[in-house]
Design a protein that fits this description.
The chain folds into three domains: 142 residues, no CATH class; 51 residues; 143 residues, no CATH class. The chain is 71% helix and 8% strand. The radius of gyration is 37 Å and the shape is elongated.
Length: 366
């Protein structure tokens, strides 16, 4: 059996005529169409219902098994309306006394009503969808609904409206710039804003920024020490950069000749590595603390601070050697100490993890 479903998503039929829905059967559906046409001749749902009657009559003349019904939603919103349409479709299907498989032909008046198609498809197969519009108003409702969807969707709204808004601001800002005798500055700032926005949208930087903000918010409310550790580490990185630049300037001032690239890099590293090491230790300790609180701490995680110290010792000694701060013996000692520190910490925590894991497994089996 083919079920011809006339969809009135915003329930114009019920609100304007008082008909209770769903309306099932040729005669009741015709009465509902006449009542709605009498109450509001300009309502597009009138055409939908009459189209359903026309399809029903045409298929009946071909001796096909067919039924026609009108289902409605409500004017409370898309989600509530779709749910109500689904409930009425269930009622219609339950009322059909047939042993045949039921398929549907959905008749709507535009793109908005077609949002219920997945709801109907979840209940019965759909053989086709017909959209009924007045000829002189072709695509008008679809255009309105499309514009409405664009304005309601935050993603599309940000993509389309923000660049248009920035472009529309160019003229008034140019007038303001002319009054302030700074036209180039105003146009440059506007162009920069538009360019940065388009680049951020193209690279998807907004998603990363939103994810970072969300992570920071959750970390703040969850009391994670990594958030504080990252803030302190950022400050230490800045201080390390300033210290490295100061060291480079002092080295240039003390040198009688032009510094080569190896010497410049050595000066930057020698002046900043202590601060960078402190930042690395801070972040690793914050992460270790959070893992311990969450009950996910593993022994190998404790290697991180020792690795940071070992790398810092090596870099400090090598850069100092290039700047003639240390001799070859000091460099060899530092390289050996850094290597041993990394190896010893790795072995120590690996042994500790192995023994404690074995002990915990024995305790669980006992």
């Amino acid at each position: 059996m083919l079920l011809v479903l006339c969809v009135d998503l915003d329930d114009d039929l019920g609100r304007k005529t008082g008909f209770s829905t769903p309306v099932i059967g040729r005669e009741p559906v015709e009465e509902a169409a006449v009542a709605l046409a009498t109450a509001d001749p300009e309502d597009s749902d009138v055409n939908v219902i009459f189209q359903g009657i026309h399809v029903y009559d045409d298929l009946t003349e071909r001796d096909e098994s067919v039924e026609v019904a009108v289902v409605t939603g409500n004017d409370g919103g898309d989600v509530d309306a779709n749910r109500e349409v689904g409930d009425e479709v269930d009622t219609v299907l339950a009322s059909l006394s047939t042993a045949e498989d039921v398929t549907t032909l959905v008749i709507t008046d535009g793109a908005q009503d077609e949002s219920v198609i997945p709801i109907i498809r979840s209940r019965a197969p759909i053989d086709g969808v017909r959209r009924v519009v007045v000829r002189q108003a072709q695509n008008l409702e679809s255009m309105y609904y499309t514009i409405k969807q664009v304005l309601n969707d935050p993603e599309t709204r940000g993509t389309v409206l923000i660049p248009i808004g920035i472009l529309l601001l160019i003229y008034p800002l140019a007038l303001i710039g002319a009054l302030l005798e700074l036209p180039g500055l105003v146009l440059g700032v506007t162009s920069t804003l538009l360019g940065l926005y388009l680049i951020s949208r193209g690279l998807g930087l907004g998603e990363y920024l939103d994810a970072t903000v969300e992570y920071g918010r959750r970390s703040l409310y969850a009391g994670r020490t990594t958030l504080l550790a990252y803030v302190v580490a950022a400050a230490l990185f800045v201080l390390g950069g300033v210290s490295g630049v100061n060291m480079l300037e002092d080295t240039r001032a003390a040198s009688s000749s032009e510094l080569g690239i190896p010497m410049m890099l050595a000066a930057l590293v020698y002046g900043s590595v202590q601060w960078f090491a402190a930042a690395g230790i801070t972040t690793s300790l914050g992460q270790i603390t959070d893992e311990y609180i969450a009950g996910r701490l593993e022994w190998r995680y404790l290697n991180a601070p020792f690795y940071v110290i070992a790398i810092a010792v090596v870099l400090y000694a090598v850069s100092g050697f290039f700047l003639d701060e240390f001799g070859i013996a000091t460099l060899a000692t530092a390289l050996t100490a850094g290597t041993l520190l990394g190896i010893v910490s790795t072995l120590a925590f690996a042994v500790a993890e192995s023994r404690f894991s074995e002990g915990s497994r024995r305790a669980d089996s006992a």
